[in-house]
Amino acid sequence: PEGRKMSKRLGNLVDPHEVIDAHGADAFRWYYLASQQPWAGYRFSADTVGESVRQFLLTLWNTYSFFVLYANAADDDAAREPSEAEAALDRWLVSRLQATTEAVRDRLDDFDSTGAGKALAEYVDEMSNWYVRVSRRRFWEGDAAAFETLRHCLVETAKLLAPFIPFTADAIWLNLVHGAEPQLEASVHLEDFPEADAAARDVALEEGV
Fold it and tell me: C-alpha angle with apex 189: 184 to 190, nearest 5 degrees?
């Protein structure tokens, strides 16, 4: 129960298996790793775990599902070239990925999973609620640059998220990298953890956007 100390004596313990059955193991992990600093104390309830699903995991999955839907329906003959502004938006998303990668590595090196999770949540929100929303028509019209940009960023984000949400990250990475063909020896957890590419970072562009 929220706001009360849990103890066996008080009879208010929450069965973790019930929470996992309701919301999934990844949601449980994300809540504990990324919601707040451990020393701040947790005001736990099953509803707070469900909120982590709605605010983050569904946003991530919907962005991935959007890519898969339109990538599968894309007509290669209808490919179009991006405008200058659209190309700048592609570079912005890749640049923000580098900034996020640097932030996640720095935070995890300091054992700050909450700070790393916050950086990842902000990036997923930007990817979904800015890049995809502004670029919808490009995907409808088969813009190859938009598809390649979003795929690259989803693949790298899955790698960054692997320690936090291992099952979801692996499902996204496997499908985007290997497609429908199962690969018994392939997993996002066997990949090197991403490193920021300074050459792909454009701070001025990030500030401008």
Answer: 65
Condensed to tens digits (0 to 9), the pLDDT of residues 30-88 reads 887 877 665 555 565 556 656 666 778 999 999 999 999 999 988 666 567 788 999 99
* Measured distance CA(157)–CA(162) in Å, rounded: 9
Which residues are CB-neighbours of 196 under 8 A, at least 6 positions away? 98, 99, 101, 102, 105
Alpha helices in the chain (DSSP H): 16-23, 25-34, 46-52, 58-73, 84-109, 113-126, 133-140, 144-161, 166-178, 203-208
Instruction: Give CA–CA dist 204/95, Å, rounded.
Output: 10
C-beta of residue 89 within 8 angstroms of C-beta of residue 132: no
Report the candidate in 33, 30, 21 with the shortest Cα–Cα distance to residue 168: 30
Cβ atoms of 188 and 170 closer than 8 Å: yes
This prediction has a pTM of: 0.84
Phi, psi of 143, rounded to the nearest 5 degrees? -75, 110
* Nearest one of 33, 171, 191 to 107, comparing CA atoms: 33
Structure tokens at 48: 């707070």
Q: In terms of C-beta density within 10 A (0-12 exposed, 13-18 middle, 19 or more buried), how is residue 146 classed?
A: buried
